[in-house]
Write a structure and sequence with these properties.
binds zinc ion; Double Stranded RNA Binding Domain; 10 strands
Amino acid sequence: MYKKEMNKRLDKRSDLIDAFYDYPSGIRDQIVYLDPNESILPEVIEVINSFRYELTMSFENDEGEQDFLFTNGEQAILVSQSRKLGAIFIDTRGTDGVIEQVLSHKCLECSSEDIVESILHAQRSEVDEKLVEMGALDYLGTFDRLGVPQPNYRCKKCGFRWHHLRDMVRKDRSVLYKTLLEKSNQDLNC
Ligand SMILES: [Zn+2]
């Protein structure tokens, strides 16, 4: 019976947003893809489905703006495609963070794992500075698109950019630095 209610098409966008916020709250996270090509949305949906989240509601307006609400019965994921803003927004609350890792730690456009994270210049540590020198980290440049958060990931291969909210938090990268340093030392010794 539950299946029969899958993908209810709503007339009002606000009903879908309300439904998302009706799910229990938890740590909020958001991923935003900038200037996505046509293959990104199906790819995002495939990842979400692979975690056993199913589409329960959708909405589409005349301008081709689309919203999708996925749920596993306990948590919900909101996917919104805005052609006007040139972005796809993925909002989660209370998930364990694994889906977000899958969606943000590889390029969804070209599948490359050669991606680089950007951080606020003012938040850099000494280790961060060394990582920037090594090309393993970037500083956030200027970005000005109203309604779209600053991208903090970039694919080195194709230039695709995206924002991952939880990764904007300042973190200790000394383990990453040590790993990269050991790897480059090994390469030198070979
Ligand atoms: Zn790419």
